[in-house]
Amino acid sequence: MMAEDRASLLEALLTLLPLDAVLCEEEEIRPYECDGLSAYRQTPMVVVLPSSVDQVRAVMRLCHALKVPVVARGAGTGLSGGALPLAGGVLLSLAKLKSILSVDPRNRSARVQPGVRNLAISEAAAPFGLYYAPDPSSQIACSIGGNVAENAGGVHCLKYGLTVHNILKLGVVTVEGDYITVGGDALDSPGYDLLALFTGSEGLLGVIVEVTVKLLPIPERAQVILAAFDDVMKAATAVGEVIAAGIIPAGLEMMDRLAIQAAEAFVHAGYPVDAEAILLCEIDGTNEEVSEHIMAVRRILQACGAGEVRTAKDDQERARLWKGRKAAFPAVGRMAPDYYCMDGTIPRQRLPEVLRRIAEWSQEYGLPVANVFHAGDGNLHPLILYDANNPGELQRTEELGGKILELCVAVGGTITGEHGVGVEKIGQMCVQFAPKELTQFHAVKHAFDPHGLLNPGKAVPTLHRCAEFGAMHVHEGKLPFPELDRF
Amino acid sequence: MDKDIAKELQERVTAACHAETPLEIIGGGSKAFLGRESQGEALQIGEHRGIVSYQPTELVITARAGTPMHDIEAVLADHRQMLPFEPPHFGAAATLGGTIACGLSGPRRPYTGAARDYVLGMTVINGSGDILRFGGQVMKNVAGFDVSRLMVGAMGTLGVQLEISLKVLPRPAQEVTLIQERTAAEALVVMNHWAGQALPLSATCYDGDHLYVRLSGAQSAVESARRRVGGDVLKTSGAFWEGIREHHHGFFAAAAPLWRLALPPATAPLSLPGKQLIEWGGAQRWLSAEMDGLKLRRQVMEAGGHAGLFRGGERDKDRFHPLPQIVSDLNRRIKHAFDPKGILNPGRMYART
């Protein structure tokens, strides 16, 4: 964009928004240069902070008329660079839209603005005995608009689903600046399921300006069991056995030795530091149901060879056990100057071979890897430890990360379970999807945004980019891991 | 007999695309009554059948679109598992593809989720004849747009399904149905009150005189909830809910057109001509009445819902609730993105898609 275009855009924005809602000085826009994935940084041309839906619409109408790209941003806690600004674009922050508009205890829903924090919804619903189920680790800080854009998960997905399962209705501003309602206050709505399509669309289809979430009754009781294993494989088997017994735990998490040690050193959760793996299994529901299932799960874990099986005595111990898990990322982060968090999902039965290969590569690359695993739903978070100050170490880390994600695809899984593609995994999209599938994605994008103004360059790679990526990664026309069954 | 005819189906769609010949996609034909009149050459997918993979401990089943629902449910039952959305069949010939294309869910829907909630991935043929795979066989997957869920309820207008992967759940250990005599207003209040409590609800229905409440879960949980909810135990629980799900219940025998009203669940009873049967804690209400569609839709919209003509009435008019203009335009552009020649079940859902 030419300097005079920039000047006229700023001038026009100032007719739509108050002075303090348009940021363009270097020191003002610097905080917006990255999201939770700080390896990628770029300052935008301008940051706007609208405080009403009408202002969002006006900004979109203007940007559409001038053909200026727009990147929407919530709390900026995303881990895939989905909110990375564009040098020639507008960064549209939804942070000022942060009101809880209403809580409807009879219909068990809450209508909120996109900047409302995930945890604040549950806090507002608590007086009615209700809560919002999806709980990403960042729930203290992350906002619901971003949760919808990324289809955020959390530790309770196996039983309660992802964001897509827990929202009813969206208010969306289209690229042209029109306002549409997607979904509704009933359990379904007529026409194509745009609610599903918008969820996880990473800001490519529209700007989410209102969210109606589904609220659930707070379970009467929740109880956590910690089980320690001297072998990761035994822990993996135990997960399958619990599910085979017809029990769906509210949360079922696994951590490996390095993750256990990091978490224990950080928050003193009371984890057995000599274990090769621990499982945290949370059962919730009615009082009687929890008692019945806790007994059953204890028996299964013992039968699967758990060395220690500990049931939290009270809510404090339960909270402490979870704290170790929820703090696992920063805990691992203390062990090295930098860490890189992966987010693949695999069919659970393939866990042993995936962990074995990750361990081999970790040795080969000389980069330690800690594994934190949403074991119930197969979502694996390998955390690669590195030091960006060592020349070439970030590149090797990204290379190792890419190999891990490609392995996830090769065993029948996916490159991202809950963090999104963003800019980070755009290359791996070429591994997961064939050119015709990517072409279909582009056609969908075109239906909503024919000029490609909404978060361009994220989530869906161009075929040109894939050709370049493939040239780097596919040696002699062979797919990675030819020895593995492909699904 | 298991058979893979994906290639043949792809050739048919490709040829139809070139010739711009509309296709009517047919599974078992059990839901032919739904939506607007079909038009086009028949594309039979019933032969494309068979369970491709099923790992009970992974909670995932993958099957070809023409697989009969009975086959899928029988295999799941052998492993004490189920499709959590309790889909209606509306006939013994019902197939998985038809069930997902229609996006119908049964009595368990408000408490465990809808058909679209359990779809993990799908292979489809788009209107250009390309075989495409979206989603996968894992619970958490946010790579790419959620095209698999977009296909659910699209009535075959966006793609011909080939294979579908679904999340399944264990069958509850215990199930009991209780009956209470209630007015409609009371029934709506108590259903929504219970849904806000930690109770193992799995279905609710009000037939005009009685409220039926099904509880499912661990034995101890069902026992204690039974005492809290109260009422007489219904001996024929299985048959009752099957009757509601499949529309064999006496209510559905009436000759008048059958409307499906979707509403915010706690909506007070709607004063309408004809008879009503309330399901899903108040979120799905069946209306059997000769009634002006426009007037009905206005009343339902004011309550925050929408109304579709389910059975009876004219087939060449809008059956599903009309869409606002901007959303209708978006629907049309999405249709064009998947089916540029407009050959897949054209007009089955809306005149323009």
User: Average pLDDT across residues of chain B?
Assistant: 97
Order of strands, main sheet of chain B, comes to 13-10-12-11-15-16-14-17
Number of helices of chain A: 17
Q: What share of the residues of chain A lie within helices?
A: 25-40%
Count every beta strand of chain B, where a strand is a DSSP E run of 2 or more residues.
17
Return the structural class of chain A.
alpha+beta
Q: Characterize the quaternary organization of these chains.
A: heterodimer
Task: Determine the N-to-C terminus distance of chain A.
Answer: 45 Å
- Gyration radius of chain A, rounded: 23 Å
User: Pairing-aware structural class of the strands and helices of chain B?
Assistant: alpha+beta
- Quick one: overall form of chain A? globular
- Radius of gyration of chain B from CA coordinates: 21 Å
CATH class category of the largest domain in chain B: Alpha Beta
Largest interface (CB < 8 Å): A-B, 98 and 87 residues
CATH-defined architecture of the largest domain in chain B: 2-Layer Sandwich
Number of structural domains of chain B: 2
Helix content percent band of chain B: 25-40%
Question: Mind telling me the CATH class of the largest domain in chain A?
Answer: Alpha Beta
User: What's the CATH topology label of the largest domain in chain B?
Assistant: Uridine Diphospho-n-acetylenolpyruvylglucosamine Reductase, domain 3
